[in-house]
Amino acid sequence: MVLNPAYEAIGKSFVQQYYAMFDDPAQRPNLISLYNTESSFMSFEGMQLQGALKIMEKLTSLPFQKINRIFTAIDSQPMFDGGVLINVLGRLQADEDPPHPFCQTFVLKPLGNSFFCQHDMFRLGIHDTA
Amino acid sequence: MVLNPAYEAIGKSFVQQYYAMFDDPAQRPNLISLYNTESSFMSFEGMQLQGALKIMEKLTSLPFQKINRIFTAIDSQPMFDGGVLINVLGRLQADEDPPHPFCQTFVLKPLGNSFFCQHDMFRLGIHDTA
pTM to 2 decimals? Predict the structure, then answer.
């Protein structure tokens, strides 16, 4: 049971690194370095993907060229295996689409002196209005 | 490394149980049974709380009497210690307030034949408009 006291800084720095790569189509393929070949899970708008290759197939197939992103909140918590749980709430605008809220959850697992992304869940905040 | 194949059903059933208790002020104090005395973490609108007592102090101090809730998406993933990661996206209306989007993330840890809530992150989807 080793809580990493730097969880807040780790969360913020991971989020910066992740979206800097994600939001630039030229860098997006490099996201593969953040996922584990076998064991990383992603839920993308409800679609379940496992393993770095499947995840990257999805992420590199996304058509937009430009994303503007505003962060509303980045919450992090330390996990008992030394990992970090991160929740991101924000708004994004892909190309000329209207802006949408989004939330994304990451679970980082320690690996040597760094972390990889074990769990990743992404949802746009598009709600049926009742 | 024991993935629980029932993660999807566990996620959905936990979410039902959690909000049935949370949304009824008479039952809300019973949420204490879902958290660990020492090790549960909660982030509530950015406020960090640790341990069942601190978490319950916050949750039972919330003033609203009535909550209407609509779920947009419930995503679950199995974790490698047998736990389940859950992300809930929805809209809620507390008393006569205007409805707001919310997202909430849970990490359930196995305990005997059941689970407790190790991590809990709650945010209303209130965004500054740029």
Answer: 0.96
